[in-house]
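Entry 12.
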Amino acid sequence: MLGIAEHTVTAADGTAAVVVTPRGELDLAAIASLDRALRSALATAGPQPRLVIDLSDVSVLHPVVLGVLLDARRRCHNAGGATALVVASPEVAATLAETGVAPLFETGAELQAALAHISGAAHSNH
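Predicted 3D structure (tokens):
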């Protein structure tokens, strides 16, 4: 069963980031829910959005879902923001690597590492 949580956190440098945390299997059945959650997160993130997609509790990341992640990344970057993924699972990391998507995202093995990546991006955009 797919569950998706959204909350705002403040990075060490004071920048706010919206964290979207899907849980369970991200497959064809999850695309619409994930897309809605990511669009909602970006709508509430304000100018120069900082978005972290925390995949720590994702058991399966089907390649069909990558288009939704890439679309959220594109929208965020077009607004002058930054996107990062939390990737704790070797299976999820393998899917990202095998599909060639991994280099397109900042990643961290835990939330604080991902926040550090987008905090650095926030400073380089000013």
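Annotation: The first helix runs from residue 31 to 44. The CA atoms of residues 6 and 20 lie 5 Å apart.
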